[in-house]
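re: that chain from earlier
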Amino acid sequence: MNLPVINDTGRFVFCRIMNLEERIKLSETRVFKTVFPNNTNHYDTLFGGTALSMMDEVAFIAATRFTRLRCVTVSSDRIDFTHPIPAGTIIELVGTVVEVGNTSMKVRVDIFVEQMYEQGREKAVSGLFTFVALDEHNKPTKVLSKESN
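^ sequence. v structure.
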C-alpha cells in the first residue's frame, strides 16, 4: 500500500507501507571491526565493557532504523560471553529486532569472531537490549503506526 506524505521540501511523495517482517529485515544492522591491542585487557582479549558499548551502539542503530524515531536504551538483559575475542581478530556485530511492544522493542546483538587469515567464525557474545521510542517531548511514543502493523 502506498501512502501520500510530505517530504522535507514540502512536496507530496508516496511511501510504501511495510509489514512488520519487512521492517525487521531492513533494520538488521551489521558492523565489522578489527580488535586492536588498545581495546584489550591484560589477557589480550577484548574488554567486556568495550564489547558492551559496541553492542549497545549496534542495538541503537537497529532500533532507530526499525522505528525511524528517537530511541533510548532502557536495559540490557543477560549478556553471555561464550568465547574470548583476541587482539588481531575481526568481529562482526549483528543487531536484530526480535520483539516489538507498544512503545518499546527488544534488539538481540550477537558478536561473531574470526581470525584474519583463516576461514570460519564463532559466536563469541550474545545479548538482548530493550529500547523505548520517544516523542519530541521525551515521552514514550508508539513504535508502530496503525498502517504499518
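The mean pLDDT is 91.
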